[in-house]
């Protein structure tokens, strides 16, 4: 087991105990947050005919829901920072439930946009961010494994909801199904009840612990030493003014992250990556049908993809938690992103159904690896104590690519009349950020190592000066005694 990365949480996370119940709760919350918008597509054809709307109009229901979930990230982060994860998840579960119940009485498509899209999307945001944040308060050494297990909730819940929604639709229609789904999502409230705040009375680790060169610990440690030196040049009045103003802002959300080197690398790469992240999943079955494969075989490709995705996420968490990968986990994430891009670039070369099955397996591996590491690497960069603000800022920025990525990819299919150009574009959108991550994290790790060496040198020099001062005081005291 790799050594725990030092944090300035002020306590030692338990890395187990009730934390595993919290992981199970996060498994449920994250599962519903990501799977619920996708599972609702089963009802779209019936709703489209009922309201006499176009396919694009009905498709906006899930798009608005996903966009609202990402746009609600900063609001959710502010509430988590203020009230903690448990009450926010409870409110989020009630919001999604109320949204589905109200949508079951809908009379226009706008009604569904408002209820399912906006209210339901914000409710899912109140489930996602708290679940991601609380894992960092319970786990430190085993955090990659915990994150990998929690992120497995997405494929598991999706594979459960998809057949369940088909059964409910056959028995009760879309209105009755929405009512029942409104009760099912109340399980998010049960998950929220399990998210007990961590006991912070645990003794902190001794300061003599050897540091680990991860992004958050090294950069913040170096920044702390630099700030300590510059603070000596400031007056006490300016210090108190600055601390008061920063305290008021950080009480809600930490905007200083936009000056954090690792956070900016992560954000820049992810904005490009998300243009090509979801589209290959959305168009996998249509692409198979375009090649003359029957509907059931095309749908089975998604089942293969989901099955591989389900098992690779916890496996990625285990690999990321090893002593060889954990200290440089950003390189592992860079590889996973690049691997996605290569899969999409090679997809048009797959001929026949067996070729698409092979692609679905390798794509499931790539997609699951990125999904398992997506938030773990962010927490590694900024630290658990700033993660809530970081994930809120990231999701609001990623809202645009998530909303526009699939329509842009669909437009390429309409223009060229072939899916291969869409897969080429998605491959480029994934491969370029992957290479960017490799290069920038090499630079970032190099800078962090230099800053850490400087911090150690400053600490040693300060210790030597303190010893010399102590010795001079002792000599002076002894001189006065002799005199």
TrEMBL record:
It catalyses: 4-methyl-2-oxopentanoate(out) + H(+)(out) = 4-methyl-2-oxopentanoate(in) + H(+)(in); 3-methyl-2-oxobutanoate(out) + H(+)(out) = 3-methyl-2-oxobutanoate(in) + H(+)(in). GO terms for cellular component: basolateral plasma membrane. Signal peptide: none annotated. It is found in: Basolateral cell membrane. The chain crosses the membrane at residues 18-37, 58-80, 86-105, 112-139, 172-195, 263-285, 297-319, 331-351, 357-378, 390-409, 421-443. GO terms for molecular function: monocarboxylic acid transmembrane transporter activity; symporter activity. Residues 19-445 form the Major facilitator superfamily (MFS) profile domain. Belongs to the major facilitator superfamily. Monocarboxylate porter (TC 2.A.1.13) family. This is Solute carrier family 16 member 7. It comes from Seriola lalandi dorsalis.
